[in-house]
Amino acid sequence: MVKRLKFLRLLALMLSLPWTAAAAQVAPEEKLYRVAAWSFYLQQPTQALETLQLGPLQSSRSRLLEAGLYLQLNMPMRAATILDELLSEADTAPDSLPLSLRNIALLQFARYQLELGNKVLAQHYLAEVNPESSGSWLGQQQLLAQLVNWPDIELPPAPQFDVLAKHPEMPYIISNQALVLAQREQSEAALNWLQQLQQQLYTPPEQGFWQALFSGQWRLISPQQGFIYPAQEKLALTDYIALLQAKLHVERKEYAAADAILTDFGSDSVLSDSALALYSHILTEQRHIPTLLAVLQQQVKRQPFSLTAWQAATRIGEQLERAQQVQDALAAFHWAEQYYQQQVREIEQQAIPLQVNQLQQGMSQWQQLQLSNDNSLHRLQQDILALQQQLAGAPERQLRLGRLQEVTSFKLVQQEQLLSSQLPQLKQRQASLQQQYVALAQQIAADEQQPMALSLWQGEAHSQLSRLQRAEQRVAMLQQHNKATADYAARLQRLRGILQWQYTDSHAERQWQRRQAQQQLVDLLGGLEQQLTTLEQQGKATPRLLQVQQRLGELNSQQQQLNLALLSKQQQLLAELNQQLQQKRTEQLASLTGLIRHNKQAMARVMEQVLLSVDVAPGGRSL
Amino acid sequence: MRVFAIIAFALFSQLVLAETETAAAQLEQLKQQVIQLNRELFLLEEELLFPPETQMALFLSVDTGKFFQLDSVELRLNDKLIGAHLYTAAQWQALTRGAIQPLYKGNIKAGEHNLTAVFVGKGPDNRDYRRAVSYAFTKAEDAVLLELQINDRSSDYQPDFVVKPWSND
After folding, report:
1. Are A571 and B13 within 8 A, CB to CB?
2. Is residue A37 within 8 Å of residue B97, measured between CB atoms?
3. Highest mean pLDDT range out of A30-34, A81-85, A211-215, B84-88?
4. What CATH number is given for B55-165 in this structure?
5. Does B169 touch chain A (CB under 8 A)?
């Protein structure tokens, strides 16, 4: 049974499908959604989630992205909660998900549940997919249905190449159907389906453009129909179909046909190990001893620490024994004995408890093989590494916390200074300025009542009036001493008249200028007051800063506890991993012990034959 | 110290182990706690390091990127360089798919300011293209959030560069 993974592609589609052209006026939630998309596209799901959750998530699209991001962070339970809420909303709701998007989400989530081993949940979500509108996701849906319901899958009367032509899942679906056909004892039909599938996948060797042009076939050049697979995937697919065919031929005891397929099987194929195992079986059945020996040796070489290789080792001797080559068989059993001892030594050396830092790099070959061949061990490894990733973020979180605590303390000191000294001083100065202004305004108002107040003059006119007043005072003094001042007084009177006329003439303009200057002063004083109010407002931030300081303290201890919890969980999982590895070690050593015993018995048997043959041989030496 | 740590660790381990939840649920809960902690830290950082009274944040978005492909952007505030960004293919692709890039975040004084963004890239017909756009604004009590938009102008098949303020709602 075959399955394929396409998480990120699906999630990206989920994200990009509902895009309409960037609207000029975008709502705040839309902005956050698009900023989150930036982090998502740059493979930063944690940051994307953080951005998305900054605002209230109301639209179904944002919530769907949130669920997708939780999935990407391997948090299926949170994703399930959100998805269930979303799916429970009526289709007619104004903000309900478009049907196509809903189907994609369901397919992705069903796939994820299946990979977690939750078949029931996977079936539940898959059943929610609307088959009528699955359209371009038909291939995904059919393949997933096969994986979920295996082996009770639907079988059409004939392979549906036309329906699935544009779906990359087509070969997987058809080959799975062929497998089920074979299981239902219709191996001939299965072989037929596989052959048809092989033909579908076959593409004639590409002809160069010039070659086609000069051979007169350029009219036939046309783009390839259907889905075009990447070269490596196509090769693996072709190999997989060939291997299936060979297996079916073996089941039907058509060894020659299976042999013909496997002889040409590529040694660099990803399926070469399975092919070797099948080939050795065929060769055993057909008694092609020399080729079989070569195949068994290949198995031993290519599959270290595997039961297949261990069995192959003893089978070499057995095949030689079967071929009556007792001396060679004895040598082969001796070699197998040494090989087993060597494998036991290597397992004992390599199967040591793992540390966290060895999980990414630094594992022995045996450990690597166990982790890549066992799903549960692999999951444990991934969980431990995920926890390590969370723990690796701890120093940065601590740094951020420290910086924030520093900033809060600094701000509190600032507040203290502001409240205790700066603000009262500033308020005092502002009050004094205000008082001065009021006094000046009163003075101006009083002076304006006078016919020609000196204070309301300025520039040359001010100095002329001052001089006139001084001259008038001097004339008055002269008059007191009975001097003749009538002429001066008359002249001064004329001058005063002229100045009076100038004063009256420019009065309106000067009054306007004064009012303007006064207004500017009022504005400046108003601005000053506003600034002081702002400062006072900031002064009120102290309780909030104290709250923040307290919260930071709480977060600090929360962070310590979280780190401990992460570490504890990691150690727990590591212990579990090591325990399972030890169990594997014990099982494998038991298998090897069994094989050693079996090999020893075979060796004894062959040795007996050798001795007997020496005994009975004419002129032979007796022991 | 080490003994204390081990005892504390052991006590905590017992606490954790005492929970009857499955390992997967426990793992997910721990991850959720980390996410919550990070989010709270982010919000406090916003409040303390970039309060609205001084905050200025710049974002960048692209319409469809038909007439212009962005290579870099340079940001100047009152003729002083405050930031620059060089775009990778993945980042450009993210922008053309509708993402908004958080380009800059900083603190500025209250009053009049002038922002200039210089866009460098490839214009129509794959020609080198360099355009600057200026935007004058007044910083008051609210945070200043500005979006630099690169739009496609179909009337003359040229890119259009706009600075658009975000409302603080």
Report:
1. yes
2. yes
3. B84-88
4. 2.60.40
5. yes
